[in-house]
Every structure is written in structure tokens, then in C-alpha cells.
Design a protein that fits this description.
It is built from ten helices and 45 strands. It is mainly beta. β2 and β3 form a beta hairpin. InterPro entries: YdbH.
Length: 869
């Protein structure tokens, strides 16, 4: 039987336990409330010699940050290494851990400055972890870039006093077959934090990291190494990164199937939490290198492959490059700048090699004492391959700048099509130097810079063996945000084509030498064009995006005694026109405004020209003419034409002519001809056409010729006949009908002026003809000294050159029958072309005219010969 004192003691103990239990219950409730834990349940607790186990533990936390749901199945807390201080149980094992975290839908996004890194607090946190934690099955549902992602795997965590904390995880994505293994070791004390991390995919190592952060009196020292010697599962890593990227719109490049990467750093950081801003203010050294044995797709660039290395030195946040090297190849580079080029100029692959080089002697101000000397070699393969070699001085710290020297760019292409132009066998070699920074660009082409084309074809123009000398050209540009705000290209420019072919020109070599000036949408060319024919033309060209093209060409005065370069240049120069004396000059202005008709003005001046046209000798030709093309109409103005003499067999001159011609461009042969003056001297008199106008579509055209003061003795001088002489002055009118068949005269009139004149025909042959016929004897005797009062004739001329004269002759011979009146009716027929030809076949005629006359006679005889049946 229990004594009263024993019952009292038991009662007090039970009361104390009840009070402690009540206090613990109330404290536990307040703890759950402070931690926003709405539900905390455990099921089937068991106490065994090995430890404490729970069949199931569930927890739900609802806080302003979001909702956390935790479910643990098969929790075992071992007695081994049990401690009276948190975390009490040092051996923890979980069969299944399910975790779900949902952030609050509306959460104030306030960027708070991270507190400085507290090594002691971090050490206390790590010390609170159990010595051994095993999660056999881990299920996590967490926020990610796609909204939420599910992970499945296991976790092993151990902590020892010497090695610190070690964490091993095996993770697998939802719907994925690959398994990510994470092995991390973390060691910390009061002043040091050291991390070693290794990543593997499907048991194949991918990345390793060693990082050591030590607190010092001046801040923090950070040393580390990152290595990926066999990164052969980078495509899978890229998929993981895309899932957990902080921004859903982040587009990461496709990763290669194999790569080797490494990096190392020794940095002195200011006090504070490690972040990007802290790194910008660091001092120390950073180096990185990589090898991409297989192409790596980079958005906007292409498939990248090769090697690179980089070393940087920093002092208080001022970083400069100490070393840079690369040997990279880009396949299918379709960057935005390449898409702006014509298809024939795009490259299929680019190869870039960068090596260390010697320092340059002369540097720009921005590169003085902070230049990284490099040698670059860039090669492009494709329809237009190119190769660039240069010495590059690159700033090793911001603000950035680059200076190129000893640069040479070689370009070649078998075929290049640009708009309406086709180029064949292009070869360009450019020697240049330049400078580039964020504000300006300058480029100078040096001696030896030239471009060669075997053939260039566009529209009706074809050039063969074209060479452009570009040495001396300078490009200057002002930059804003990487784009050219203002640019200027200026300098000498030389062009040479071994053969230039155009329907309007005789095929031969041409050259251009002058200066080029281009400012944004304005282009100016000032220089001289010359041809193998010795033709030289000073030319000024200007183009403006608003006003279009303007061209001015000046033909310096040509002295034709030394030769006629126009005849050797213009394909449509009249084949029968030869000029061998005199002076000729011209000027032309061409305007091609946008969306408007072409405007052309041509002024031509001739002084003292002499030569041959067809079978006519010309001398003393002075002329001023103007050609205007505007608003779809051509106007030719012959302001003045004076010709001393033209001799097609019969001398004609002096001649004066003034006329205008207007016609629409679409119908140049159906315009309006307006004659202001037309007058010429002929056989001591004049031939004149009264001012008039004709529309050329109304053919045949009627042109009335007025003859005044023609002297008969001049005719007999030009057309001598045996024993024939005479005097008299004649006037007349000849209605010329001009048509496509030729010239025709119908019922023209010629008559002698009052009081008449005199004819003398004294020929022994004529006398012998009339000795046997009394009537003919009277005629021959009368014409030996015939004084006529009337001599009139009707003139008819057909397009074949046949002249028919029907004459009425009235007068007397004072020696016959006391001068009784005698009347004659005479019909004469003459082949005028043959007559002129016979008049031209004299010793005084030009040899060229003689050959042309003889050729014409042969052609006429051949056409007149009867054809064999």
C-alpha cells in the first residue's frame, strides 16, 4: 500500500507535468501561429531503440509570400549522435518528401538591398543542419519560367567538422529522361566560405566549380575556378536552364553537343553582399578560355566553332584586357547585317583568328597607354569570298576604341548581280587604315587599293576589264547608338575600262579621273572623261535624293586639223561627213529629277569648219546650235549657220540658214520645222526659201525655191561646151516636193530678165551638120550671134535625177536678113547626178570625192544594166 507521502509526491509530479504540458501546448500553438502554419499533423509516432519514427507528417503554411505545402512519408529520427541542442537529431532519413510552393499572386516587388554577407550567421545556419539527411524520394513542384515545374529525385546531405557540409542530389525533370546529379561541398568558419560544386548528367561529369571567399580587413578575397573539360551534354543543360531562367521571354542559344570551358579568378571585393555591382568595383584578375569542337548555334550569328581565351585585369572596378586570342569559325552566318546585303554578297562561313601582336608606333589619343595590340585575320567563304588581315589596337578598358593599321582586304567573286547590273570576275584589293569608337568612324584607303572587273553589264552599257583606283578615298562618320548619323566619303577616284560598248558609241577604251564627294544622300563627281579617240570631256556629276541627278559636260574647243575625235567616238556620226579644218566646241547639261521627265540642254559652236559631206566639198562653216529636251519634247534651234561654199559639182555659197525643229520624244520624225532664213549664192545670183513652217507628218513637203540674178555666163563657165558662150540674167521659181522617194520639181519656171541677153554657138561640127540642110544651116547661122529678148523655160525634175527643160527662145541675129525675129522651141533632157559627177571628175577635185563619184557611177551603171531572164 502506497503511503500518503508517496501519493503526495506523485500528485505533485503529475501536476508539474500537466502544467509543463499545458505550457508546451500553448507555446507550440503560438509558434505555429507566428510562422503562419495553418496545419501541422503527424500520424503513427513510434518510439524504438533506434530512434523516433513518424509514418506521416503534413504541414501547410500560408504567408504573405505564398503557400507552402510539405508532406513527409516515413520520417526516421535516429538516436545516434543525439544532441541536446538543435537540431537534436543528427541522423534523419525520409522515404518520401513532397514539396509544393506557390508564390502569392499579388506581391509587392520591392528591391531591397541585400545585407552584407555574415560568415558567422551562415556558419550557424550550416551547423543547424543534421549530420546526415537522406531523402530517398524527392518530389518538388516549384515556380519556374514556364509557370511551375516538377522535379523528381533523391537527396543526400552530410556534415562533418573537417569537410563541412556535403550535398548530393539526383534530379529528373517532368517528362525528361536525363538525370542531373549535383555534388556540393560547403565549408565555412568565421572568415571563410569555400564551395566545391560538381554537375553531372546521366553519370557523365559536365561542370566543376571551386570557389573560396575570405573576409579581410579591406573587404573580401574571392578565388575560384570553373572547369568543363568534357561538356558533352550542354544541350540538356540548356533545356534545364530554359526551364529555370528567371524571365520567361529569355531565349538562350542552342548549346553544342561537346565543348570545353574553363575560367579562373582572383578578386578583391569591397564589403557587401556579392552581386554584379560588387564585381564591377572589384580588383584582380579574371581569365577564361573555351573550345567548341562542334558548331554552337548562336541566335543572330550562326553556328560558332573554335577556340578563344581572354584575360582581364581590374583595379577598383576599372577593368582592362590583358590578353585576347581566338580562332573561331561561324557557319551559315545570317546576322541582321548580312540580311541587308544582296544575296551574292552574303557569306556561308566566317573564320576569325586573333593573336597577340607588337605595339603600334602611332596611336590615337584614346588608345595611348591602354591599347591591347592584336593581329586579326578574318576570312569569308561563299559566292563572294574575302580575306582581311590587319594590325588592331584595341582599348583594354572602357571607353572602347579600335585602331586598324596595315590592313588589307581582298575580295573575289566570279559573278555578282546588283539590281540591273551584272559583274563578272570581280577582284578587289584594299589597303587601308582606320579608327573606330562609340562616336566616330574614319577609314583611309592607301596606295594599291583598287577594284578590277572582267566585265560589267547594265542595260545597253557593257564594260570590259574595268579598273577602279581607290587610293586616297577617306570615309568619315559620326555615330550615335551604333548607327551612322552623319557620314562623308571624299577623295580621288580613277576608273579605266579597256573596252566600253554602247549603241551610241564606238567601242574603245575609256577613262575617268577626278574626285568623289559623297555626303549621305548627296554625291558629287568632278573630273575628266577621256577615250582612246583622244576625246576629253570635263564632267561634273551630282546626285541629290530630292533633286535627282544633275550632269554638266564641257567639250573643249577641238582643232580639227589635228584630227576629229568625235568621228572616232560617236557611232552615229555621219559616215559621209569628214571635217579636217576648223574649231568645234560644245557643252551639255542633263537633269534627271525623281518622278519627272528628263531635261537635256546641248550647246554646239562651230567656227571655220571645212571638209567633205558625201560628194560635196565644204569650207568656211560657222554655226551655233542648241538642243533642248524637256517635258517630253525635243527642240533643235539652229541660231546661225553660215557656209562660205559648198561644191557638189556646182559651187553654192555663201549660204545662211536659221531654223527651229520641235517634236515629241515618242515621235521624233513627226515634228514641226520652222524656217526663219534660208539663202545661198548660186552662179552670181541667189537661191532663197521664204520663211515658212512644215509639219513633217504631212508629206510630201512643198518647199518653193526663189531664184534671183543667176548669170548665164557663170553657167557656161561651170558647164563648158565647145564654142558656146552667152550673157544674161535669169530669175525663177522651183516648187520642190520632198518625200520619202526623193526630190521632185513640177512645172518650175525660169526666165531671162529684160532686155534679154546674147548666145554664141560657134562650132565647126555644128556648121558641118547644117551645110547639107538649109533649115539647119539657118539655125546654126542664127545661133552664132543670137541676141534674145525672151528666154523662158519650164523645169521638171524627177526623183531619179532626170531634168527636163522646155525652152522658148525669141530674138534675132543682126547679120541674118537684117535682124528679122527668130523663134526657137527647144527641149533638153539631162541626167543631173551624172552631170554633177562629170563636173566633179577634174584634176582639182578632192581625191575622196573622186572615189565616191566613181563608186556612185559604178553603182548607177550596175542598177541600170538589163537583168538576165
Amino acid at each position: 500500500m502506497i503511503s500518503r507521502r508517496t501519493w503526495l509526491r506523485l500528485s505533485c509530479l503529475l501536476l508539474v507535468l500537466a502544467l509543463l504540458g499545458g505550457y508546451a501546448y500553448l507555446s507550440w500553438g503560438r509558434l505555429l501561429e507566428r510562422q503562419h502554419i495553418q496545419r501541422f499533423d503527424w500520424h503513427t509516432p513510434r518510439l524504438t531503440p533506434d530512434g523516433l519514427s513518424l509514418r506521416r507528417l503534413e504541414l501547410q503554411q500560408q504567408s504573405p509570400a505564398g503557400t507552402l505545402q510539405l508532406q513527409i512519408v516515413g520520417l526516421q529520427l535516429g538516436w545516434r549522435d543525439f544532441s541536446l541542442e538543435p537540431p537534436f537529431w543528427q541522423q534523419v532519413r525520409i522515404e518520401r518528401l513532397a514539396l509544393q510552393w506557390r508564390p502569392a499572386a499579388e506581391r509587392a516587388e520591392t528591391a531591397e538591398q541585400a545585407p552584407p554577407l555574415d560568415f558567422q550567421a551562415l556558419g550557424q545556419l550550416l551547423a543547424a543542419l543534421p549530420r546526415s539527411l537522406v531523402v530517398e524520394e524527392l518530389l518538388a513542384d516549384l515556380p519556374c519560367a514556364k509557370g511551375h515545374c516538377e522535379l523528381r529525385g533523391d537527396l543526400h546531405q552530410t556534415r562533418t567538422a573537417s569537410a563541412g557540409t556535403q550535398l548530393e542530389m539526383q534530379l529528373q525533370r517532368q517528362g525528361g529522361d536525363s538525370q542531373l546529379s549535383v555534388n556540393a561541398q560547403l565549408h565555412t568558419d568565421a572568415d571563410t566560405l569555400e564551395l566545391q560544386l560538381a554537375l553531372a548528367l546521366d553519370q557523365r561529369p559536365q561542370l566543376s566549380l571551386h570557389s573560396s571567399l575570405q573576409r579581410t580587413a579591406d573587404g573580401q578575397q574571392w578565388h575560384g575556378e570553373l572547369a568543363a573539360p568534357t561538356l558533352n551534354e550542354s544541350a540538356v543543360l540548356r533545356t534545364w536552364l530554359e526551364d529555370w531562367a528567371p524571365l520567361p521571354e529569355l531565349s538562350l542559344p542552342g548549346a553544342p553537343s561537346a565543348a570545353q570551358l574553363s575560367a579562373s579568378w582572383q578578386l578583391q571585393l569591397p564589403q557587401g553582399a556579392p552581386d554584379l555591382d560588387l564585381l564591377r568595383r572589384a580588383s584582380g584578375r579574371l581569365s577564361a578560355s573555351g573550345t567548341l569542337p562542334e558548331p554552337w548555334p548562336i541566335p543572330g550569328l550562326g553556328q560558332l566553332q573554335g577556340e578563344f581565351s581572354l584575360a582581364l585585369l581590374g583595379l577598383d572596378g576599372h577593368w582592362r584586357a590583358e590578353q585576347l586570342a581566338a580562332d573561331l569559325t561561324v557557319q551559315q552566318p545570317l546576322a541582321d547585317w548580312q540580311r541587308t546585303l544582296p544575296a551574292t554578297l552574303r557569306s556561308d562561313s566566317l573564320q576569325l583568328r586573333i593573336e597577340a601582336s607588337e605595339s603600334q608606333d602611332v596611336l590615337a589619343d584614346k588608345l595611348t597607354e591602354r591599347a591591347l595590340p592584336l593581329a586579326i585575320h578574318l576570312r569569308g567563304q561563299g559566292s563572294t569570298p574575302f580575306e582581311l588581315r590587319a594590325q588592331l589596337a584595341l582599348t583594354n578598358a572602357p571607353p572602347w576604341a579600335a585602331q586598324l593599321t596595315a590592313a588589307q582586304l581582298d575580295i573575289s567573286s566570279p559573278r555578282l548581280d546588283l539590281a540591273d547590273w551584272q559583274a563578272r570576275k570581280l577582284k578587289a584589293s584594299l589597303q587601308f587604315e582606320g579608327y573606330l569608337d562609340a562616336e566616330q568612324l574614319s577609314l583611309d584607303l592607301l596606295k594599291g587599293s583598287q577594284l578590277n572587273l572582267e566585265r560589267l553589264t547594265g542595260s545597253d552599257l557593257q564594260l570590259k576589264r574595268l579598273r577602279a583606283d581607290l587610293a586616297g578615298l577617306q570615309l568619315q562618320a559620326q555615330l550615335q547608338d551604333g548607327a551612322a548619323e552623319e557620314w562623308r566619303l571624299e577623295g580621288p577616284l580613277g576608273l579605266r575600262a579597256r573596252r566600253l560598248a554602247h549603241p551610241a558609241l564606238i567601242t574603245q577604251g575609256w577613262r575617268w579621273q577626278g574626285r568623289l564627294k559623297a555626303i549621305e544622300e548627296q554625291i558629287e563627281l568632278n573630273g575628266r572623261v577621256s577615250a582612246d579617240s583622244d576625246l576629253q570631256l570635263p564632267v561634273q556629276l551630282s546626285y541629290d535624293g530630292n533633286r535627282g541627278l544633275h550632269a554638266h559636260a564641257q567639250l573643249p574647243e577641238l582643232f580639227l586639223r589635228a584630227g576629229n575625235p568625235l568621228a572616232k567616238t560617236l557611232a552615229h556620226w555621219p559616215a559621209l561627213l569628214e571635217l579636217n579644218r576648223g574649231r568645234l566646241s560644245a557643252s551639255a547639261v542633263l537633269n534627271l529629277p525623281p518622278n519627272q521627265a528628263t531635261a537635256l540642254k546641248l550647246d554646239l559652236t562651230a567656227k571655220g569648219l571645212a571638209g567633205i559631206y558625201d560628194r560635196a566639198a565644204l569650207s568656211g562653216l560657222d554655226a551655233r546650235a542648241q538642243v533642248n529636251l524637256a517635258r517630253g519634247e525635243l527642240r533643235v534651234t539652229l541660231a546661225e549657220l553660215r557656209l562660205k561654199e559648198a561644191n557638189p559639182g556646182v559651187p553654192v555659197g555663201p549660204l545662211q540658214l536659221r531654223a527651229d525643229y520641235r517634236a515629241p520624244i515618242a515621235q521624233l520624225d513627226r515634228g514641226l520645222l520652222e524656217l526663219h532664213q534660208a539663202q545661198a549664192g548660186l552662179m552670181g545670183g541667189t537661191v532663197r526659201v521664204a520663211p515658212d513652217r512644215w509639219r513633217l507628218e504631212r508629206i510630201p513637203l512643198l518647199v518653193p525655191l526663189e531664184l534671183r540674178g543667176l548669170q548665164l555666163n557663170r553657167l557656161f563657165t561651170l558647164y563648158p561646151a565647145e564654142g558656146l558662150a552667152g550673157t544674161g540674167i535669169f530669175d525663177g521659181q522651183l516648187p520642190l516636193h520632198l518625200s520619202t522617194e526623193g526630190i521632185q520639181v513640177e512645172r518650175g519656171r525660169i526666165a531671162a530678165r529684160t532686155p534679154g541677153g546674147r548666145l554664141q554657138l560657134r562650132s565647126e561640127r555644128i556648121r558641118a551638120l547644117g551645110s547639107s540642110n538649109p533649115t539647119m544651116q539657118l539655125v546654126t547661122q542664127s545661133l552664132e550671134d543670137f541676141h534674145f529678148t525672151t528666154l523662158r523655160s519650164q523645169v521638171d525634175y524627177d526623183p531619179q535625177g532626170k531634168l527636163l527643160l522646155t525652152m522658148r527662145l525669141e530674138g534675132q541675129n543682126p547679120a541674118i536678113e537684117q535682124g528679122r525675129p527668130i523663134h526657137f522651141n527647144i527641149n533638153l533632157e539631162e541626167d543631173i547626178p551624172s552631170l554633177l559627177a562629170s563636173l566633179q571628175l577634174t584634176d582639182k577635185v578632192n581625191e575622196i570625192i573622186r572615189r565616191r563619184v566613181q563608186q556612185r557611177i559604178l553603182e548607177r551603171n550596175a542598177n541600170a544594166a538589163p537583168k538576165e531572164p
